[in-house]
């Protein structure tokens, strides 16, 4: 695997490779502290492209909470070993100065309409502005044919899809949304999971159980009732729930009730101590 810290070096390298041959580039942007979820994306990128590129950059502009950024886990040496084992060809490991040479304020920013104000957008003001900034910059640098992202961050997937449209790159870049990789108890793998204490980790699978119950009870229950059950159960077990919501799986417009005429997604966010966890499940 070739590692680049300088963006211009990576661009020269990819340009040379692509000049000799029309090589397909698959790209997996990450914030590091890699786990099997990230590696599943690398596996798909590797299988379907000639060059698998990954990036590790903990983007400060998408953290509305400074302490969340400060505590974000980092394990670059281990990450590199995992990427090599997964067959990743190229890693971009840039500094903040490389990504935002003129500071992040001067970067073009993108708005995503109501997506900026619901669910993650509501809980983390400015989050998707930061995501849009960094993803636009990374797509411009790598110029991939395919981008691989995880369904775990459902709203982010829709935001990135919209961003590709706003950048007028929908004919050049295909977004590939890949399934959420879970632990044995259903907990969605996340870099933040490593910050859970043992007792917190022991109950963290409850988030997924809530999603499964929302799915199961659509047959004979009202979503409002199931939503309240989930919020109460999470609070009782020691979570601080932020939302338990139901939305149209296509555009993420929020639903008050189950609507069998639509493909639906259930989404949850809750804190355990100061560790914020999110998850979702497409339920029909
Ligand atoms: P992050 O490093 O958290 O920014 O994630 C980088 C990419 O990995 C994003 O597209 C995430 O949605 C994806 N990802 C994170 N966790 C998982 C998981 N458990 N399963 C599949 N993809 C994931």
Summarize the structure.
The chain has helices spanning 7-20, 36-48, 66-70, 76-86, 96-99, 120-123, 127-142, 154-166, 198-203, 206-216, 223-236, and strands at 2-4, 25-30, 51-56, 90-92, 146-150, 174-178, 240-248, 254-255, 264-272, 275-282.
What is the strand and helix layout of this fold?
Elements: E1 2-4, H1 7-20, E2 25-30, H2 36-48, E3 51-56, H3 66-70, H4 76-86, E4 90-92, H5 96-99, H6 120-123, H7 127-142, E5 146-150, H8 154-166, E6 174-178, H9 198-203, H10 206-216, H11 223-236, E7 240-248, E8 254-255, E9 264-272, E10 275-282
Parallel strand pairs: 1-4, 2-3, 2-5, 3-4, 5-6
Antiparallel strand pairs: 7-8, 7-9, 9-10
Helix pairs in contact: 7-8, 10-11
This protein binds adenosine monophosphate.
Adenosine monophosphate binds near residues 31, 38, 40, 41 and 188.
Shape: globular
Q: State the helical fraction.
A: 25-40%
Determine the mean pLDDT. Answer: 97
Query: Main sheet?
Result: 6 strands, parallel
Q: Say what oligomer this is.
A: single chain
Structural class: alpha/beta
Radius of gyration: 19 Å
* Low-pLDDT sequence parts: none
Q: What is the second-level CATH architecture of the largest domain? A: 3-Layer(aba) Sandwich
End-to-end distance: 40 Å
- Number of H/I helices: 11
Count the strands?
Answer: 10
